[in-house]
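Go through this fold for my students:
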Amino acid sequence: MKTIKLSAALALALTAALLAADASSASSIVFTKGGNVWRSSPDGRHQTRLTRDRGYSSPSQDDRGRVYAVRRGRFVRLSRTGRQIGAPFNAAVGRSGNVTAYGPWEAQVSPDGSRIAYWRGIQRLDAPVGGMTPYDLEDQVVVSRSDRFTPDSTFGYQRDYRDPSWIDNRELLVFNYGLGVEEAAFFAPKPVGDPSFGQWFSDPDVAQIGDGELSRDGSALVVGAGGGLDLNNIALYRLSAKTPPDAPERVCTYHSADGSSSYADPTFSPRGNAIAFAQDAPGKRADGVYVWSFGNCSGRAKLIARGAVDPDWGPR
């Protein structure tokens, strides 16, 4: 497993000046709302709808501000203003013989815009045995070129993991749900189907972690945490010079007062001093994309886009 460059600690004691600088920087958050892709300033005051033909999910940004999304099972590339770049193309999903691959889900473009990572669900049906048809189900993290269909043989894939997010342009953070192995792991796709893989950690005080992201400087980790597929907490961890391979230190969590809300797609600001996430809470008015500037792990998140989902925070 490749060593990641890490800073000494997560700077949790953020000053008001830094928070203001991050909020007023050129960074933006993309999300979907009403089936279309939108771009927003971090404070939610300036929002632009990039598409109007609906059916989009999982938008993400590269470092140039180009947006990559899934529309009805195909990958679509958009300019910063929403102009479509090239033709949509397929992911490695569909049916072949006794195997059906569902997805693509939670697609994420690499910072340099060269590759897209996503996960798919595999259902394998075998010949009937004793009058019954046996099958198995499997999660797989897959990597595609960002401009055309890419077969599995190009980069390989990782079984039993999902929720990919790019650490840099070469390696992915991925998560396992319920197989008795470390829940957080690393997957480095390589050509000719020879990927490298290394398990990282599970949190003994949380039944499940997933859907996470490392900060740009490698000093912090944010994940969804909870008792199963419903992740009803946002958990922040500090990384030091020894992590990985050591487990990171959990420093705080964010959750609703009664624990009834669930959270998805936490994503760091470029400075690493704030996160955006999607909230699903009782009552529609509380649903949407929120931003939490977590100085000293205090304060409440601000709703910036009611009814929105799938946030991704980019540097442009």
User: Anything to note?
Assistant: Confidence is low (pLDDT under 50) at residues 1-24. DSSP finds two helices and 25 strands in the chain. Helices lie at 16-23, 152-155.
